[in-house]
Write a structure and sequence with these properties.
Elements (H helix, E strand, L loop, with lengths): L1 H12 L3 H4 L12 H13 L2 H12 L4 H27 L9 H4 L8 H25 L3 H31 L4 H16 L16 H14 L23
Length: 243
């Protein structure tokens, strides 16, 4: 089972909330109200793992291997939420327990392999965002927290990539749908804001995205022939079907 190896590797990299974060060293004066709002936003967003775990355990109910991994992923994601909540408490900005149900994010349902694809890209985005926050935050303890969170999300992305690769190996016909959804997700992350008035270039005319698609293709099907530009899938996400 993939879970056996992932459990060991993730346990080796695991950090300790009480040992590795010096909450007493926080310097609140270094934080602007905007930074405090950012911490509250990220703390609330981490609750999305509640709904995602429910969805995975239901959609993958026959996959004991993956459901076992979800138990570790869920634990680590909730630790991310907890460390940020404790940080806010030390700032005197505690989240009340009555707020938590309202803050809980509920992602839309998706077929199993689509859910894996979206989570793979979502973990990568979070890793990049937390790394960027760690590099710019003016308060040292919060910088350490975001550095730890970035590393954790990066490990999660690698683990999801492992399960996504296995899914494609078992169901090769799902690969075009995975690529289509993956490209759509990357495109959405890089598009200019709607109020800029600038439309993104069509995917088929953008070599940057073709290269990125080929990188994803190699990751999921390393022994297959790389697709050429004329075979690029449409930009709309499509269900690839359950595993």
């Amino acid at each position: 089972m993939l879970y056996d190896q992932l459990f060991v590797s993730m346990e080796r990299a695991r950090w300790d909330l009480s040992r590795d974060i010096d909450f007493d060293a926080i310097e609140p004066a270094r934080l602007t109200p905007r930074w405090i709002d950012t911490v509250r936003e990220v703390c609330a967003f981490q609750l999305a793992s509640l709904r995602a775990s429910e969805m995975f355990l239901g959609g993958f109910r026959t996959d004991v291997d993956f459901c076992s991994f979800v138990s570790v992923w869920f634990y680590e994601e909730m630790e991310h939420h907890l460390v940020l909540r404790k940080y806010l408490e030390h700032l005197g900005e505690a989240l009340e327990e009555t707020e938590l149900p309202r803050l809980r994010v509920s992602p839309d349902e998706a077929p199993a392999i689509d859910a894996l694809t979206l989570r793979f890209f979502g973990e990568q985005r979070l890793a990049q965002r937390y790394a960027a926050l760690a590099a710019t935050v003016p308060e040292r303890v919060l910088g350490r927290i975001f550095t730890i969170l970035a590393a954790g999300e990066g490990r999660h992305a690698a683990a999801y990539a492992t399960y996504l690769r296995r899914a494609v190996e078992r169901h090769p016909a799902a690969l075009p749908g995975v690529l289509r959804l993956g490209l759509w997700t990357m495109r959405g992350a890089d598009e200019p804001a709607a109020d800029t008035g600038r439309a993104p270039a069509p995917l088929r005319e953008d070599r940057h995205y073709i290269r990125r698609m080929q990188g994803l293709y190699r990751l999921l099907a390393p022994d297959a022939t790389i697709v050429v530009e004329e075979e690029l899938p449409a930009l709309r996400p499509a269900a690839a079907g359950a595993l």
